[in-house]
UniProtKB/TrEMBL annotation:
<feature type="domain" description="NADP-dependent oxidoreductase">
    <location>
        <begin position="28"/>
        <end position="264"/>
    </location>
</feature>
<dbReference type="InterPro" id="IPR018170">
    <property type="entry name" value="Aldo/ket_reductase_CS"/>
</dbReference>
<dbReference type="InterPro" id="IPR044500">
    <property type="entry name" value="AKR5G"/>
</dbReference>
<dbReference type="InterPro" id="IPR023210">
    <property type="entry name" value="NADP_OxRdtase_dom"/>
</dbReference>
<dbReference type="GO" id="GO:0016616">
    <property type="term" value="F:oxidoreductase activity, acting on the CH-OH group of donors, NAD or NADP as acceptor"/>
</dbReference>
<dbReference type="InterPro" id="IPR020471">
    <property type="entry name" value="AKR"/>
</dbReference>
<feature type="site" description="Lowers pKa of active site Tyr">
    <location>
        <position position="81"/>
    </location>
</feature>
<feature type="binding site">
    <location>
        <position position="114"/>
    </location>
    <ligand>
        <name>substrate</name>
    </ligand>
</feature>
<comment type="similarity">
    <text>Belongs to the aldo/keto reductase family.</text>
</comment>
<keyword id="KW-0560">Oxidoreductase</keyword>
<protein>
    <submittedName>
        <fullName>Aldo/keto reductase</fullName>
    </submittedName>
</protein>
<feature type="active site" description="Proton donor">
    <location>
        <position position="56"/>
    </location>
</feature>
<keyword id="KW-0521">NADP</keyword>
<dbReference type="Pfam" id="PF00248">
    <property type="entry name" value="Aldo_ket_red"/>
</dbReference>
<dbReference type="InterPro" id="IPR036812">
    <property type="entry name" value="NAD(P)_OxRdtase_dom_sf"/>
</dbReference>
Amino acid sequence: MKKITDLQGSFELHNGVHMPYFGLGVYQSKDGSEVINAVQAALNHGYRHIDTAAIYHNEEGVGTGIKESNVDRRDIFLVSKVWNTDQGYDSTLKAFDASLERLGTDYLDLYLIHWPKGELSKETWKALERLYKEKHVRAIGVSNFLKHHLEDLLTSAEIVPMVNQMEFHPYLVQQDLVDFCKAQRIQYEAWSPLMQGNIFDLDIMKKMAAKYNKTIAQVVLRWDLQKGVVTIPKSSKKERIVANANIFDFELTEEDIQALDKLDRGKRFGPDPDNFDF
């Protein structure tokens, strides 16, 4: 397992691109000053990975935050996603261009299909492959794809997705899916690592936080990284953004990693990739 060293450390994707293993998620951060300030705070504190999506309606603010930070765009790993209503070949290409315009950039580091939509996602994937081959994006991937969604996509894909971004936390480990992705060299990534705040109620987390003299959030984010999972906790508060990243001066024991793994109960706090209506 790669050593987890610092905030700008990365995992290597199967195409050789380095993806920072820790980033800022901006889901539910309001466009305008809220998201601009969050992005600036993160970048100026040392973050180099920002994750947004068309459906978050804050790409313009993210772009402004990047421009107004003191960090060069080339040093930032910028991610967005195509929304379900834009899936399909031509509409995905248009949606990508619209995201670039809102973000004020001429390329993305990673572009994801936000949710699996069966046959439609195969057309979407062909568009992503084209964007990748034409070097408009450095890596392509998917989000919320379970094993059977990935297997279906791989029947027609030329390029294996580089990333699969999933709801991932101690109540939803999905180790079989993690292992499948690893076998296919698809980098696993966590969204909602803090269980939408529910992680703070678990006694085991309180005990571990006391043991390591860390916050509960810091313990679970460290668990993500030690499991080889990229993580992008979302926050719009500067203090939280700084605190979330303070996880490089300690290490969980193998025993504690396994204890958190054992909490898995297949519980989702977000939508089910097999049963959603949007």
